[in-house]
């Protein structure tokens, strides 16, 4: 079988790598992604392995790359993804990458430090320039005639007045002024003016409008208090020249310094931009190369040296069909071509490998969510491609709703290569996008079942003419006007010639949507349909177990398990399906009133009795039913005791093993420190006898088989009832759709005037939103979960174990580097 129907054959192999070529060989294997490496040093600490120094060097380079990336982001630049996947660097190239990256990081640190100091100095000079270096501003008095100073202080005017100028944050001005007044009351005059242009705050990086202050005071002690308070409020205090000539000279000097610093800062910014351009150009490639190099050394740490210390030996799980590619990769990676691969016998269960594509990946993920397939057992995914959308559509059958779902999935399929759709950050959206082909088939099958149910947004469509003739019934019954006035509901009798002209060509006749008993009719139809499809689905699952029994050479299970299971299922529930179809075929509209009840017949079948009021469907029905029940009951002990007794007899039988002379040194360990019993030292006899081959406990086998028998027999009953959810969910979906139409959309057709047309717009908008939110999203999710349960519990447990583990090959995946 192909890989999709059954997992590929995987073998355990050994790679013999020369020490000089091991790095290049692992790099070539990583590019191809063929092998899963096993750790041959599980008891060795990661810090004591051979290549721990190389791994640390890669981690140091990653730290340097992280610093470079942070500098790029701080400058508002995002490194572009690597356009192509470069190969892992050689040892000399790795040293060059390490030197260049450290050199770029050092240059960035120095240039960033210089730019930061230049900016701080330039900001201080500009603040100093805006400080009041001219004549001290006269504080505004309370009135034009009121003096600034108190008249009692006029005798102190002969003292020398000193000045303190500076810049303060606008948020601290009020507290600063209040504290100055309380500490130096009557001995200072303060003036506050906003700076003409905003400047950057070094603490937060925000642009704010600083406040300039000028304080005049008397006395040295007052000056010391003012300076201490200014330092507490983190004010930038500048010197205030006393003479006008000194102030003019200071302004000229500041202008010159600002101009020189501006030119220097501009050149520094240009050089920094050049360094960042170089980093942005080489950083994506370096990151991919170093991550690949680190991954290679981590794999080499899982290998072990042989006794001569000249060869590295690795154990890998490898698909058998890829052994030639592995040998080709080793040939390309090795210098002298002396590296090779060799299969190793083992008793361990290999990992599961099922190759998928973008279409089958969604269905395979549904199966893997239940459990990864055991090695080479039947894979349910290819059958779920058809059965899962179909079972979903049975519960979601509506042409309109299915068409909306189909168009949404078709849009995702047509634009699946768009980076905007693939690189979304919303987890829910990514889930929908990964299952776009599943949603596409669910929508298509829902359209199909919608045509069968003849429902489009809960309304029937007359694609073909109805098979029921109202005119014929009216002519035959001679309905008068008085009769029609007193009877709002009229009955169509199919026994009248010409009233019923045969079955509808496809699906359900649209006249049933107008009937008052259409719900009873649909209930009967959908309930029987659910039972029939459920039993067929379970029977198909039991039949798939045949492929497992044949593949694993367990042919005794065909007689001791498969045959009793099929007899039990078909003798009871297969017979129920037969009764349903037989009643549909035998009884017509003419004799439908005397048709017996299948449910009563099925109950009487288990009671070994008959009901005189319930006529038999065919002659000899009671003996046939008794035989079927006896067969079903007789199959239970065969299912319960067959396999344990067979295993017990095989264990009791004497074994004959041919002695084989062992070659000299055959049991000598190849790996240093190799323990006995590992797959490397396994001999042919060990593999043929199953390793240590302990005797199976009969009680354990019997308990396992008893649990399986009870689960299967009771499951046939409960699982058949579980498939009735198809009927319940389908009915619920149809009723919700009908309620939404009658309570929302019908209100938009109340008027045929222009006003009615205007009202129809918001009504239709509300109908569309509720349809998408309730019927498509909520009902669709409900039907999806129920279909998932029917596949996991009712279908897969008939043949699927799901106790395996995936093959995780060592590969350089492009997504991890981005």
Automatic annotation (TrEMBL):
The chain crosses the membrane at residues 390-414, 531-550, 562-582, 624-646, 752-778. Keywords: Coiled coil, Hydrogen ion transport, Ion transport, Membrane, Transmembrane, Transmembrane helix, Transport. It holds the Pfam family V_ATPase_I. It is found in: Membrane. One of its GO terms (molecular function) is proton-transporting ATPase activity, rotational mechanism. GO terms for cellular component: apical plasma membrane; vacuolar proton-transporting V-type ATPase, V0 domain. GO terms for biological process: vacuolar acidification. Residues 94-128 form a coiled coil. PROSITE patterns: PROKAR_LIPOPROTEIN. It comes from the Eukaryota. Essential component of the vacuolar proton pump (V-ATPase), a multimeric enzyme that catalyzes the translocation of protons across the membranes. Required for assembly and activity of the V-ATPase. PANTHER family: V-TYPE PROTON ATPASE 116 KDA SUBUNIT A 3 (PTHR11629:SF21), VACUOLAR PROTON ATPASES (PTHR11629). This is V-type proton ATPase subunit a. It comes from Taeniopygia guttata (Zebra finch). The lineage of its organism: Eukaryota, Metazoa, Chordata, Craniata, Vertebrata. The gene is TCIRG1.
């Amino acid at each position: 079988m192909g890989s999709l129907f059954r997992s590929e054959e995987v073998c355990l192999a050994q790679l013999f790598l020369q020490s000089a070529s091991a790095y290049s060989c692992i790099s070539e294997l990583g590019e191809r992604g063929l092998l899963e490496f096993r750790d041959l040093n599980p008891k060795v600490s990661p810090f004591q392995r051979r290549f721990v120094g190389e791994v640390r060097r890669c981690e140091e380079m990653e730290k340097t790359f992280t610093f470079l990336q942070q500098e790029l982001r701080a400058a508002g630049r995002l490194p572009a993804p690597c356009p192509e996947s470069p190969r892992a660097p050689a040892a000399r190239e790795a040293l060059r990458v390490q030197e260049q990256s450290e050199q770029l990081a050092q240059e960035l640190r120095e240039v960033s430090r210089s730019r930061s100091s230049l900016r701080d100095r330039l900001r201080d000079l500009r603040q100093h320039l805006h400080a009041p270096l001219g004549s001290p501003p006269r504080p505004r008095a309370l009135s034009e005639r009121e003096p600034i100073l108190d008249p009692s202080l006029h005798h102190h005017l002969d003292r020398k007045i000193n000045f303190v100028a500076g810049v303060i944050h606008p948020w601290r001005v009020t507290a600063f002024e209040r504290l100055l007044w309380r500490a130096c009351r009557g001995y200072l005059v303060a003036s506050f003016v906003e700076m003409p242009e905003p400047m950057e705050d070094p603490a937060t990086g925000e642009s704010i409008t600083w406040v300039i202050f000028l304080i005049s005071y008397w006395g040295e002690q007052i000056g010391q208090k003012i300076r201490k308070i200014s330092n507490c409020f983190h004010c930038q205090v500048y010197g205030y020249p006393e003479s006008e000539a000194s102030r003019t000279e200071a302004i000229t000097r500041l202008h010159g310094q600002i101009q020189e610093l501006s030119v220097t800062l501009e050149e520094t910014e240009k050089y920094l931009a050049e360094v960042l351009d170089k980093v942005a150009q080489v950083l994506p490639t370096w990151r991919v190369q170093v991550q690949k190099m680190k991954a290679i050394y981590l794999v080499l740490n899982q290998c072990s040296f042989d006794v001569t210390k000249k060869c590295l030996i690795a154990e890998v799980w490898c698909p058998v069909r890829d052994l030639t590619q592995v040998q080709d990769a080793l040939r390309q990676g090795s210098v002298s071509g002396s590296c090779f691969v060799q299969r190793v016998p083992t008793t361990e269960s290999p990992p599961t490998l099922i190759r998928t594509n973008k279409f089958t990946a969604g269905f395979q993920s549904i199966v893997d969510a239940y459990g990864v397939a055991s090695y080479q057992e039947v894979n349910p995914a290819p059958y779920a491609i058809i059965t899962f959308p179909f079972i979903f559509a049975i519960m979601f059958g509506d042409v309109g709703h299915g068409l909306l779902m189909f168009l949404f999935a078709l849009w995702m399929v047509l634009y699946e290569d768009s980076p905007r759709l693939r690189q979304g950050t919303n987890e829910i959206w990514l889930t929908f996008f990964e299952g776009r082909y599943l949603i596409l088939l669910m929508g298509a099958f829902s359209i199909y079942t919608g045509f069968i149910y003849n429902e489009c947004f809960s309304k029937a469509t007359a694609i073909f003419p109805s098979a029921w003739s109202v005119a014929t019934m009216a002519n035959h019954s001679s309905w008068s006007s008085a009769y029609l006035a007193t009877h709002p509901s009229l009955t169509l009798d199919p026994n009248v010639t010409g009233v019923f002209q045969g079955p509808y060509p496809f699906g359900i006749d649209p006249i049933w949507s107008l009937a008052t008993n259409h719900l009873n009719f649909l209930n009967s139809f959908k309930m029987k349909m659910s039972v029939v499809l459920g039993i067929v689905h379970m029977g198909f699952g039991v039949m798939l177990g045949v492929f497992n029994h044949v593949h694993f050479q367990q042919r005794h299970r065909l007689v001791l398990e498969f045959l009793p299971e099929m007899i039990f299922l078909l003798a009871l529930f297969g017979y129920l399906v037969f009764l349903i179809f037989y009643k549909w075929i035998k009884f017509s509209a003419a004799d439908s009133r005397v048709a017996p009840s299948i449910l009563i017949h099925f109950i009487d079948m288990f009671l070994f009795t008959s009901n005189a009021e319930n006529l038999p469907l065919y002659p000899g029905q009671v003996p046939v039913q008794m035989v079927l029940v006896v067969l079903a009951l007789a199959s239970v002990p065969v299912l319960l005791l067959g396999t344990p007794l067979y295993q017990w007899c095989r264990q009791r039988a004497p074994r004959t093993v041919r002695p084989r002379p062992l070659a000299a040194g055959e049991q000598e360990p190849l790996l240093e420190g190799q323990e006995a019993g590992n797959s490397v030292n396994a001999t042919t006899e060990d593999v043929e006898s199953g390793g240590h081959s302990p005797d199976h406990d009969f009680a354990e086998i019997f308990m396992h088989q008893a649990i399986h028998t009870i689960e299967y027999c009771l499951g046939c009953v409960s699982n058949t009832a579980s498939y009735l959810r198809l009927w319940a969910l389908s009915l619920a979906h149809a009723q919700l759709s009908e309620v939404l139409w009658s309570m929302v959309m019908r209100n938009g057709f109340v008027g045929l005037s222009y006003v009615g047309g205007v009202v129809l717009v918001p009504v239709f908008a509300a109908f569309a939103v509720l349809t998408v939110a309730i019927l498509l999203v909520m009902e669709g999710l409900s039907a999806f979960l129920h279909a998932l349960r029917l596949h996991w519990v009712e279908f897969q447990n008939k043949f699927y174990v799901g106790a395996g583990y995936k093959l995780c090959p060592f590969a350089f995946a492009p997504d991890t580097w981005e």
